[in-house]
Amino acid sequence: YCDDVCRAHAYRDRKKAAQDFVLGLMLAEAEWNGDRGIIRLLTCPTCGRITFAGGDRRSDAIYCGGTCRSRAWRQRAARRARRSA
Length: 85
What we know:
The protein is an all-alpha fold and about 80 residues long. Helix content is about 65%, strand content about 0%.
């Protein structure tokens, strides 16, 4: 590597790729067994991307990121506005 920054970046990329692979295996096994609880835990309810709470994320994280969290909030706010109208 050209310097310590590039080496650290490559390490983080490898670690993330390995984590994504393991999460994909867990999701495939849950789909095979029909385990809806694990499927709900491993996927973002807004976009359906694989996500996992814990590790470098909050243990109570539900969404894959801020974009999906905001999108879900806007959808909930729109539903509340329609109900009250």
